[in-house]
Structure formats: C-alpha cells, structure tokens
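Sample pair:
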Amino acid sequence: MSESLAADAKAAFKAIRVSLAVSGALSLIAGIVLLVWPVKSIVFVTGIFAAYLIVAGLVYIGLGIFSSSKGGWARAGHIALGVLYIVAGVIAFSNLKEAAVTFALITVVFIGISWLFDGIVSLTLLGNDGSRTWTLLYAILSIIAGVFVLFNVLAAGIWLWIFFGASLVALGIVQIIRAITLGRDAKAVKDAVTG
C-alpha cells in the first residue's frame, strides 16, 4: 500500500516539476524576447490577438447559425458580433505595426483611467473604511499614477512593457528554481511515506 502511495506521490511530483520547468522556461524565454526585441514582440502579440479575434468571430458566427435553442435576436447578435470580430482581426492583420501601437496605447490609456477612477472611488469610501490613512494614501497614489500615465502615455507604455518583460524573466527563473527544489520535496515525501 505504501509503495503504491509513494509511486503515486513520485509521479505527481514529477508532473508538477515538469510543468513548473516548462512554464518557467517559457516565461523566461518570453520575458527575454520582450526585453530584447520589444517592437517585434509587441507586433507578434498583436498578431496572436488578431488571430484570436478571427477564431472568436468564426465561433460566434457558428453559434449564431447552428444554435437552434436561441431566439432570432440572440442568433443575429452572435452573427453580428462574429462579423465584427473577424473584421477587427483582418484590419489588425492588414498592418500589424499600426495595430500594435494602437493596441498598446489603448491598453495604457485604459490603465491610466482605471487607476484614476480607482483612486476617486477610494476617496468616496474614506468615511466608511477603518484604515483611513492607508485608504487615503492608496487613493492619492492611484490618482497620481493615473494622471501620470494619461499625460505620459508613451513613456508609461514603454515602462509597462519593460516591467512586463522583467516580470516574466523573474517569474520564469523562480519557476525553474521551484522545479529544481521540488525534487528534494518529492524525495522527502517518498521517504516519509515508505519509512
């Protein structure tokens, strides 16, 4: 019984180690690519997003055409949404560089606006919160960050991309280290189960 349990634990740890190592290596490689080739990588990411839009559009059109359980308006809405997704994907593919810049700018502006509104909402909750000092500090920092991003969209976009790439590198390294150190944990579990 304990040998079977030990074998199952060893197999589970091996599967976890492999998945950690693979995801860590992919994160590390993706982070390095984002940092070394920022323009090419954002164009590549935009291409993936454009392909997703086309596939999602085809799925929505399929849902609209073949879904007999939905009403006429729902089916028409699915088809219209599918066509819209496909058109957006084709437009993005027609000039990936411009689409990448537009996609990046929209993302950064959205982040700036969300930080600004998050700070304003935090200020409205100030009277109901038990930790007013931290809420006020958070609200002020969020508003300042949002305003900074909105007035420096290009710089914020560059820093966001650098942060994203560096985060992927750091997370990849940590995942790989976890995969390596998990081997010792697997041995300890096996010894505990069999001993």
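The CA atoms of residues 124 and 139 lie 9 Å apart.
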